[in-house]
Amino acid sequence: MGEAALRDGLIERDRHYLAEGASQMSRIIDADSHFMEPLDLWEQYIEPKYRSRCLRFEREPDGNYAMLLDGKRTTGLGEFTNRELLGVAVGYGQKEEGLNLTSFDPAAIFSHSLEDMDKRIAFLDEEGFESQFIYPTLGLFWEDGVEDPDLAAAHCRAYNTWALEMCAGHRDRFYPVGHVSLRNPAEAAKEVRRLANNRARAVFIAAMPIGGKSLGNPDFDAVWAAAQEADIAIGLHLVVHRAYVGNEWHRDRDPGFMFLSMNVIQDPRMALTTMVYDGVFERFPRLRVATIESASGWVAEWLDRLDYRYSYMGHTTQMKRPASEYFARNIWISADPTERTLPYMIELVGDNKFFIGSDYPHAEGFTQPVARARKALEKLSVASVDKVLGENAVRFFGI
């Protein structure tokens, strides 16, 4: 379906919903979008003692960009150069124009146009979003390459300071999602409190194992305790890392970026499973956690499998109740706007726990996200659609 047809469909569908009694003031929230950080952000914002080791980029003679981080230099990932990957970061709408990973245009990075928050408001207004939660982009790439806990914490502080500044003029529309690293739980807990004091409503945790530990390891409890105390939500977002689910199947060769990108979406599910299994929601019963950019079609099977195993093996875990009870109390799911399975997940597990995000400005993001979500959900009631488009995110983020 073309963009114009989608927009016409949205207008007609909105008339239908309003005719059925939906409120014109229904809140629509973009629960998963991204900044495109300036390439020199950390050089500008990190504390001086870490500056020589921080994430930065250097342009090479062939036009590519080398990424430098803590003494390591990389020029690409898989078969793609860093310049091509930067195009992915800002290629929103370009795949719909027939471009691909080798041809996405990264110009918006160098023009800094995505740092113009007034232009970003125009995107919200055009799509009908009341507000938007904004995750990092480069923050999805660096954490696996930083093993020094203090350096990781310094990167998070620098990013968070910048993100808060970026949203300062439009705090009624933009909510920066802070980045904290489990490599340094004590500093992460402090940063959660700082972010909460600056009116942040959520923090991003990388969905990857740290030191081979479950996210339910008590070593990380200080972070969950700080989030619960501050009433701040946790987003488990996929990141690029070497230990992604499925990596063992291609140790003989590089499988390419598509294989990695298909499988890292499973990592937030695994991270969440470890939190359930190892009792995080027993120890912190008011904690709110969501899987981000991990789709939703897996949820019913996941709950069925966990509840069934718990019924006769629960005593081997730190769980004190079935996973479905933790889901009802503590867990939310960020779904893709176009998922065919989302209505069936809602039918099976209820309409209170799913919301959507555009993934703007990433190339894999969803143009016309509200229109596409309405189309995917058209068999549901108006009340259920309103929940998925906004009300559930309002509850999760506490806004």
Task: Write a structural description.
The protein has 399 residues and is an alpha/beta fold. It has one domain: Metal-dependent hydrolases (TIM Barrel, Alpha-Beta Barrel), CATH 3.20.20.140. Helices cover 42% and strands 14% of the residues. It has helices at residues 3-19, 41-45, 82-89, 107-111, 117-127, 139-142, 149-167, 185-197, 221-230, 257-263, 267-277, 280-283, 299-313, 323-330, 342-349, 369-376, 382-397, and strands at 29-34, 56-59, 65-69, 72-74, 76-77, 80-81, 131-135, 174-176, 178-179, 202-206, 233-237, 289-292, 331-335, 354-356. The protein has a 6-stranded parallel sheet. It has a 3-stranded parallel sheet with strand order 1-7-8. It is globular and about 60 Å long. The relative contact order is 0.14.
The CATH class: Alpha Beta
Mean pLDDT: 94
Largest sheet: 6 strands, parallel
CATH homologous superfamily placement: Metal-dependent hydrolases
Distance between the termini: 34 Å
- Beta-strand portion reads 5-15%
Q: Number of domains in the coordinates?
A: 1
Query: What CATH architecture label applies?
Result: Alpha-Beta Barrel
Which assembly state applies to the chains in this document? single chain
**How helix-rich are the residues, as a percent range?**
40-55%
Shape: globular
Any low-confidence stretches, pLDDT <50, length ≥5? 13-23
SSE-based structural type: alpha/beta
How many separate helices?
17
Nearest-angstrom radius of gyration?
A: 21 Å
